[in-house]
Specification:
Elements (H helix, E strand, L loop, with lengths): L2 H12 L5 H10 L8 E4 L5 H15 L9 H12 L7 E6 L5 E9 L10 E8 L8 H15 L5 E4 L6 H7 L3 E4 L5 E7 L2 H11 L5 E2 L6
Parallel strand pairs: 1-8, 4-5
Antiparallel strand pairs: 1-2, 2-3, 3-4, 5-7, 6-7
Helix pairs in contact: 3-4, 5-7
Length: 217
């Protein structure tokens, strides 16, 4: 299949975001429920699955990119990340009842002169389409926020495509738009009080999703 046709098909699939009701029905047909979903810290043994998931979810999020990053590239990047063992970064994964990874979020330290008020970054948060709109994104973000608070980091930012539907998710959770020195918005959001964000997330996320605190190294 030609590259332009593959791109067109990906764009068409993502024009309409999945609804919560439709994804709940899909879970039921698969014999799943939120009670069978686990959110845990990523482990080095997850790297191959994490690389494949990262490639797939990124491609689905940015369907207009003709040559998206491959699973092999993402796996290499995750191998390099797991070499950093100082506890400064975190990654949490969503695992279904079959042991498959269906989502993940990553947090890293942040330091840049352009945004001196922020010390942490939500660098990645992705879910497969069939697991979106179920509250799992809130649970992933909650885990990342807890990681930062435990390390005395009380503010974070993220860089998003301003045209992406995920921006509504951040704005619903009180994310502040951050403008450049010329007053332009390029998709950068920030939370200046992570405790307030954590309180909001604890109220919003489904409590039935199981969590695990197994180590990620």
């Amino acid at each position: 299949m030609k590259a332009w046709l593959r791109t067109a098909l990906r764009v068409l699939r993502t024009l309409r975001p999945p609804s919560r009701r439709a994804n709940i029905k899909r879970m039921q047909r698969r014999g799943e429920s939120l009670d069978t979903i686990t959110i845990r810290e990523a482990r080095a043994t997850d790297i191959p699955a994490l690389g494949a998931l990262h490639a797939k979810t990124w491609s689905n999020t940015y369907p207009r990119v003709v040559h998206p990053p491959t699973a092999q590239l993402r796996e290499y990047q995750w191998k390099e990340q797991f070499k950093v063992t100082d506890g400064s970064w975190c990654c949490f994964v969503v695992e279904n009842s079959a042991g498959q990874l269906v989502g993940f979020a990553k947090g890293t330290p942040f330091k840049a002169a352009a945004q001196p008020d922020f010390n942490g970054e939500l660098s990645k948060i992705y879910l497969l389409r069939e697991y979106q709109r179920l509250g799992l994104g809130s649970r992933l973000l909650e885990k990342v926020v807890q990681h930062f608070l435990q390390r005395n980091i009380h503010n974070i930012l993220l860089f998003a495509d301003p045209g992406n539907a995920s921006c509504r998710f951040y704005e619903t959770l009180g994310a502040e738009k951050l403008f450049d020195k010329n007053g332009a918005f390029h998709g950068t959001y920030g939370w200046r009080n992570l405790q307030e964000l954590l309180n909001r997330l604890c109220q919003a996320a489904p409590r039935s999703t199981r969590s695990s605190t197994r180590a990620g190294s």
